[in-house]
Fold this sequence. Notes:
The chain is of the alpha/beta class. It folds into two domains: about 1-50, Arc Repressor Mutant, subunit A (Orthogonal Bundle); about 65-194, 3-Layer(aba) Sandwich (Rossmann fold). It has nine helices and nine strands. The chain has helices at about 1-5, 15-20, 25-35, 55-60, 85-95, 105-110, 130, 135-150, 165-175, and strands at about 10-15, 40-45, 50, 65-70, 100-105, 120-125, 155, 180-185, 190-194. The chain has a six-stranded mixed beta sheet with strand order 6-5-4-7-8-9, sandwiched between helices. Strands 1-3-2 form a three-stranded antiparallel beta sheet. β8 (about 180-185) and β9 (about 190-194) form a beta hairpin.
Amino acid sequence: MLVTLARLGRVASFSKLSTVAKVPRTSLWRYLRELQDLELIEYLGQGVYRLRYLTPFGYMAKLREPYLYIGLLGRKLWHSEPEPKVAIRRLKESDIYVAKAIILTSKEATESWNSTELSNFELFLLDAQSLYDTEHVAKLVSNLVEKYSNEYIVIGDCTSGPRPAGIALYSTLRYVYYSPVIYLREEDMQLIWL
Length: 194
């Protein structure tokens, strides 16, 4: 039902849902009520329902909606370009359009990169200790998803940055929001879907 609603443009009337989903009206009413109780859809009045979040249903429905990329950035070390930049390029090669990129990182990590290499990202600077605090990172990721998941399909990247931050990002996106998460294999920068 959620994927059907996503495919219908996220807003649809009861009668349209009934016709497209080919579900008996009494069953459909019950499903919609349960989805409202789970806060996955909203009732807008006059028999119209709206999908509250594009994530993960927009991804599952293969919608051509813009994506929000949430990733991490570590120090430059031996890398020639930021891993988030490579990841976004690989996503584009997979026909996934990233409209907004938010990077969780530290001041120390950003200082190791040329500022022009990071100019296309919205940076959330955290002190180094916060990147090792999984609860803090999970809360920040949750806040970002809640803020943007109505406009964008959220995709995460746990490649770079400290492992605890990557684990918190992965766990929050996969198990709380059912969002797609990627990882770039270090040796050949191959995109791996987790």
